[in-house]
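Quick log. Single chain, no ligands specified.
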Amino acid sequence: MANNKGKFFLGAALGAVAGAVAGILFAPKSGKETRKMISDKTKEVVAKGKEMVEKGTEAAKEKIKDTADTISKKMD
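-> predicted structure:
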């Protein structure tokens, strides 16, 4: 089930990026403005991606710790 959630969020993120890029590319702006918009959006997406990875890593670490604690208690 957790794997499906990860796939869903990955798909949603990729869809959002594709939509943003398509919107930027088809907007009536100059090349310089378009490149800046793409650069800014890329930086934003990378920052959000890093944030999501950090949150996921922390959640996984906490789950591992909880599981280890539960196993340890059952072995006592």
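The mean pLDDT is 82.
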